[in-house]
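2 proteins. here.
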Amino acid sequence: FITICNVYNLFRKASMPIGNGVGGDTSRSFSSVQGRRWAEKNYLNFAALMEITDSRNQFLDLLIQIGFVKRNSSTAMLLDSRSRNNQNNHHEQNRNTSTTTDKNNKILLHSPLSEKTAKVVSALICAGQYPKVAHVTKPIGGVPNLSYKKERVHFHSSSINHKNNKLESDWVVFHEKFATSKTYISTTSPVSPYSLLLFGGSVEVKHVDRKVNIDDWIYLNASGKTGALFRTLRDGVQRVLKEMTNDMIVDENSLGGRVVNGVVELLAYE
């Protein structure tokens, strides 16, 4: 998943060459011609990348409407580029319509994900894909063994984690599971215990055993205090989500805003 995010960001960067400004001018114009050339050079499907762009901006629109994301120079640039994307698809030529953003926003929009951002993205992927989570056991010097509930599964050769002996977590989320000669999973990403505690299923805290049970099949080593803390935090997140979806915009300084920022920091620095 993270690899796909990084590839898409590189596509966006290649499609938005620096404009004619000089010095501190960071105006940029979208070029479908440049994007197509980059995709062909790297053996990628240009039409699929453009579909991702359109879907991505539709989701961004929805997130702005319900208060998850603020409308600022960064989001304005992305939403403005959507209409130019459609024009370029029809005419196959570069239009010089541009928007302005600051240098830091440009880096955030088009650079590969940082380690901290990647952790937050992985947690969100866990929230979206759960319960498609496989457990990893790591034999010394061997290829990791995978199991989905009670079923033995294997990384497909198309997965970037295929033959990866140094997985950073004992849990991986996956998008697809299919059977040929074996049962395989593909499009995978390691996920942290914190992500499972926050975005997994129902949580049962076993104080005596110092374990947390998620949906009766995911067991994590954690003290009763830690398990209870995460259960309370989950309740807080659910309240914030309910407020946002009811058109109650949550400011950064409100209780809801602090909960959201706290969760992001927790996931980024785990």
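next one coming up
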Amino acid sequence: MLLMLISTILLIFSFLASTLYLTRTLCSTSLSLSRFIQHLDTPDNTVETKFDFTIENYKRVDSILSKYPANYKQAGIIPLLDLAQRQHGGWLPVAAMDKVAQIVETDPARVYEVASFYTMFNRTKTGKYFLQLCGTTPCMICGSEDIKQTIESHLGIKNGETTKDGLFTLLEVECLGACANAPMIQMNDDYYECLTPKTTIELLEACKEGKPPVMGKWGSLPMNGQVSCEGPLGKTSLLSEPEPPKVEEGRFKDGKVDPASVKAHMAY
């Protein structure tokens, strides 16, 4: 009888401890999750806020929609959201999502679903330089925590925060696919790799001056001087330029593609 009583008490304590742990975990992550699961009105982001594409971007809207059959306009939601985000300084207000819904002739909720699912879309304002720091295993092993602490201490912000001058936003993210050059960050569209605390500070200071380092030949910039992901022996393979596939002249004239002939265009 005594053993049964002790077992019951232990079971109750175990349940309470598990409940407390779960509650603390949910509370500690609620701030980061809120950017993905709910909308909070701000003075510059309400359903009454106005948004419309520029004349130049409406030409891009037409180009995007021309890639899909007329009855599949919703297929253009992702590129249209990306276009709206770029026009609006790196983030999507509700009004921009509503405009996309109007253009593709669907319910706004359908667009909200896409914008809240993909982390490439920011539904709250970000800084001019959006720093996405990879914290997945290869980067973590190679020192991403040191890079994170360097950024936080140098800019005076924590993960998920923006500097008071609106220049920088820091967000730790999952794998960005540059494991060979860990640790790294994606700043806006650009990859800065092989970081150290010293080169991280140099990068931040260059951005403060409005002179972020230019990307290298292969579309990224290892900050240790190497080229792309070449090792210490330099380039050891792919020593010549591959010959591109031949495409007949005029195939994609004016950027227009007939959806019915996509397979032919892709040489299927």
